[in-house]
């Protein structure tokens, strides 16, 4: 039998689960929309199972400290690289471009 995955918390003592719904932030809405587009059959960049696999590959520290949608963003990045949709260099280049635009007070587009 294999060891417990980082997301396998069944049977462990932990804090109570907060089941209250909270409104999604703009960031969360955008990440959710991005994932829904990428998994749509007409796009087919990856399957939802692949997203889950990538999230489960986080380190224990990352899994504990990253937010739900932050985990999704990392998983999307890793999957787009794995599926050769984008390269890590292309992603880094775009991040540099967007950060520079924000630093200048530009728009988010």
UniProtKB/TrEMBL annotation:
Q: Where is the Nitrile hydratase beta subunit-like N-terminal domain?
A: 5-99
SUPFAM superfamilies from the entry?
A: Electron transport accessory proteins
Q: InterPro entries of this UniProt entry?
A: CN_hydtase_beta-like_N, CN_hydtase_beta_C, Elect_transpt_acc-like_dom_sf
Pfam families attached to this UniProt entry = NHase_beta_N
Q: Any idea what this protein is called?
A: Nitrile hydratase beta subunit-like N-terminal domain-containing protein
């Amino acid at each position: 039998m294999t060891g417990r995955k980082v997301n396998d918390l069944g049977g462990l003592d932990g804090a109570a689960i907060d089941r209250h719904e909270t409104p999604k932030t703009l960031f969360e809405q955008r990440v959710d929309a991005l994932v829904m587009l990428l998994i749509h059959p007409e796009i087919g960049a990856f399957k939802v199972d692949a997203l889950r696999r990538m999230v489960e590959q986080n380190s224990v520290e990352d899994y504990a400290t990253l937010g739900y949608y932050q985990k999704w963003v990392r998983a999307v990045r890793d999957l787009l690289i794995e599926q050769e949709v984008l390269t890590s260099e292309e992603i880094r280049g775009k991040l540099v471009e967007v950060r520079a635009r924000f630093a200048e007070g530009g728009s988010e587009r």
